[in-house]
Amino acid sequence: MAKKILQSKVTLLLFTVTFIFNTFVLMPVTHASLRNILIGGVVEYFYLRESLLYAHNKQSNQIMSGYKKEYGENSDDRANEVLDSVMHRLLKSIDPEEKIKPKFSWFVNNQTTFNAFCGLGHNVSVNIGLFHYLNYNEDEIAFVLAHELVHGMKLHSLSSLPKLVSFNVVQALYLEKNPGTISYITSYIINRNLVATYATLPQEKEADANSFSYAVDAGFNPGAGAAIWSRVTAKSGDNGHNSFENVINPNDHPTNKQRVEYFAKRLEEYSNNKVKVSKGTVYINGKVWVTPAAAGDLLAEERAYFVAGNLATILRTAPSGYQAELIDGVIRLNDKTIMTPTDSDQNADELVAALNNLVNS
Hints:
There is one protein chain. The chain has 361 residues and is mostly helical. It has 2 domains: 3-220, no CATH class; 274-360, no CATH class. The chain is built from 15 helices and 9 strands. It has helices at 3-9, 17-23, 34-58, 60-71, 77-94, 128-133, 138-153, 156-159, 161-177, 181-217, 224-236, 243-248, 256-270, 300-315, 348-360, and strands at 105-109, 116-119, 123-127, 275-278, 281-284, 287-290, 324-327, 330-333, 336-339. Strands 1-3-2 form a 3-stranded mixed beta sheet, with helices on both faces. A 3-stranded antiparallel beta sheet has the order 4-5-6. Strand 4 (275-278) and strand 5 (281-284) form a beta hairpin. The longest helix is centred in the middle third of the chain and has 37 residues, at 181-217.
């Protein structure tokens, strides 16, 4: 396909990858032959594939400019500093030799909702609303960004294209044989369920899985993944649907509670099954240690996952001995900060004594 055609058409795709892959449904085809529908599907697939690949590899800067114009560029100094810091740490760990092309670029946008995305050309943007929601917490933001980096590096928007076009061709074939409003609505619902179940949801799960490794390998708290989603669940509830709702509007992401459970399990495994959190209580070797209260910007269960994450980085190894101490009001284990007790927590000296007993028993 000629470069000029790609350049003239690619503007339709710059800001709409999410739209393409979430609402991509062929309109009813009238009096189309089987042959024409199949040929149209093949042409559609190759056209979209070539257009997206060209935009991704050759027009990263133009895409970034378009995103900034579309969503606005936020000048919050703290948000931009956190974003720069976290992205540099993640990429230094993931891509130390800077071999990933095109290089990742990023900015804070003006949207006030809890969201972030990685678009074509490895362009990452984080809503200012996400920084506010997470109180600029770098560990939690690292898990969000690691998730988006996975989408970018795995080229998820392109890898799902064959499935999406196939679903659309099947829908068009069905509508050719079964024209009418009811058939269109039915096939649209089926198409959405196929896209959610077999294209989007598997990619979201893969991004979650790899985000844990990316964030932890870069030195971020391994409890932060579960902490984010426990916070979201506490503040916004679960986003799961009942059976009827899920037919009409299928979940294309794991639910908030499913994500808490997933990242909590990864945290437990990371600690070599020595540390876990259940209902806001931190367990060590299967025994209760502490149920942290809310403190600072952290909700109670959210804080429990951070405490557990600090413990996991120490207890996953097996040194000759552990030594817990209270130093300047901070509980430390083998010189690593575990927890800073507040007046709402259990007595600090009792916590230190219990910690020494649990980790050395």
